[in-house]
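Case study 2.
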Amino acid sequence: MSSLLNESDLHHESCVVWLENPDNLDYVRQALDKTARRRGKPRYERDGRMVGYTELQADAEADPDSGLHLRRVFFLLPHDRDADPDGPYHEGAPGEAVDPSTIQPKRVGDKTPRSQRGPAAAITATP
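Prediction:
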């Protein structure tokens, strides 16, 4: 599913659960995953590691066709800046990357100079 999320996709979120301290991360990738449960750690089937996820309100309804819930997952891949500071994201960041300090339930995270570090961030930060 697209990592460019709409807040309408997040209206049943109740909280964000971090598995790692987000203060130590310039960015995290975010995506919507289909899960069988509203709460608890969802299954993770990507390369890299899950660093957080959202839980849903008790009244969040599952998709009538699949019986699954859409939940946001925050993750990093092995070539991301935290694990490979001189790698492909030494400057810039992947499209789905957002600053973890801007993540809240029901609100899509933001791209900031911290998450987008490099020439693109310098251009964006210039008034």
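The CA atoms of residues 15 and 105 lie 5 Å apart.
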